[in-house]
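So, could you explain the following?
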Amino acid sequence: MRKFISEYQNGRYKAGSTGGTVIVINLETNEIIDKIKVPYCYCGTFVNDRDVFIAKSTAGYLLKYDIRTKAATRIRPSSLTQDGGFAVCPWDNRFYNVEMTKKGFQIAIYDVDEFKPHKIVPINGDICNVNGIEFGDQPVWYVTFSYFYKGHVKKAIAKMKDCESVEIKNIDYDVYDHIEGYEYWKRCGFTDDAGSIAVMSSDKFQIPITMAEIFGQ
């Protein structure tokens, strides 16, 4: 029995990460299709209903793996440590990725076919960290982040429409930590190993929570 740090299925294939290798498995036959080396890789995602898997490494690498063609494409947007979230947009199939660069934080929107940035959304301000991304009803999406204000760290959710921030709402630390823990666990496919990390953010990490519901309160 294989054990993964993170694990995902799209109905036809399973992809799991061991931390340094992404293993792709045929669900019908349970046979290994491929093993792709990616350093410090702990999470990823299938691209909606396509047989394409994208993995993210904390060392700054992104891997796109096309299961049908067995083509593996690696890029390295930044050499800095990357622990921010990501998500595939449900209405345009693009990959939205939180990135830390030498100029600050940004969300890079990747065209999956070309695997190149389609658009860069800078996160401006005195930003401490950018954590997660969540999609609502088109064209609304949300971003969680922390920032400095008058010597204090604030936690917040930004409501986005297309690529513009339309409203920011400060939230309690406990709520932010709950979102962070649950989002991390979800991002890793709800595995036991991921839960042992998520609990360090919040002991409520197993209780579903959305940015949309918190923003709407």
User: Anything to note?
Assistant: The first strand starts at residue 6 and ends at 9. DSSP finds three helices and 15 strands in the chain. The two ends are 44 Å apart (CA to CA).
